[in-house]
Structure formats: C-alpha cells, structure tokens
Amino acid sequence: MRADAAYFEVVKAMGGEDAGSLAMPRFVAERRFALTGQQMVIGRRSRSRGVNPDIDLVGPPEDPGVSHVHALLVPQEGGWAVVDMESANGTYLNDPNSNPLDPHVPVALKDGDVVYVGAWTALTIQST
C-alpha cells in the first residue's frame, strides 16, 4: 500500500463534494499485507460500527475517501479477485481514469495490478 500523487490529482479533478478540502499527505509509509485466508476486507476500522478490516487503511494519515468496508479480496483459482463493496468513492483497477468497478462483481487480479481506493491509496498486487 502506498500513496499515489497522480491518482490523488485524478480524484481532485473529478470534483466530488469534498474534493476542494482534500490535501495530499506529505508522507505515507509504504505498508505490505500478506494475502491469506478466505477473504480480505479493505477498509477503515470503526469501533462504533464493529468494522475491523484485514487491510486497515485507518492511517496515519487516514485516507478519508476509503469506506469502512470498501472492497474485498477473494481467492480464486490461480490468484485473487477484487470486489467493490458499494464503496462511496469507487474502486479502480490499473487506470484511475477508467470507470469504477461494478459493485459485487469479482474482477480477477494478476501480478502487478494496482487497485485504487479512496483519495490517494494504491494497492499493488504482488505474488510471492
């Protein structure tokens, strides 16, 4: 997981409701998550909602465009698939200028694919 300045500019250009108040963080430490289990929830932790995602993007800094339950990674034959979970700001694959993924439709991932969520978060899929 890393912050992507080019993706951030695309998000701001979309001009959503909160786009004018968004600021790209000066530094975001790169983080790695091992893909394991039956599924992996991508989102932001919320104690009040009982949400504890496997890939927790709560920060610091917190990407305000990531939904609490934003997307799901699910294993499939030969790899993983990403599923948008009706996130508020959409999930994009490889090209943030493309249309967001359709909710609840698994899309196969391959090594090197980039999943964009939130205002600046990019998750690169790497095989081990």
From TrEMBL:
<dbReference type="InterPro" id="IPR008984">
    <property type="entry name" value="SMAD_FHA_dom_sf"/>
</dbReference>
<keyword id="KW-0597">Phosphoprotein</keyword>
<feature type="domain" description="FHA">
    <location>
        <begin position="40"/>
        <end position="98"/>
    </location>
</feature>
<dbReference type="Pfam" id="PF00498">
    <property type="entry name" value="FHA"/>
</dbReference>
<dbReference type="InterPro" id="IPR000253">
    <property type="entry name" value="FHA_dom"/>
</dbReference>
<protein>
    <recommendedName>
        <fullName>FHA domain-containing protein</fullName>
    </recommendedName>
</protein>
<dbReference type="InterPro" id="IPR050923">
    <property type="entry name" value="Cell_Proc_Reg/RNA_Proc"/>
</dbReference>
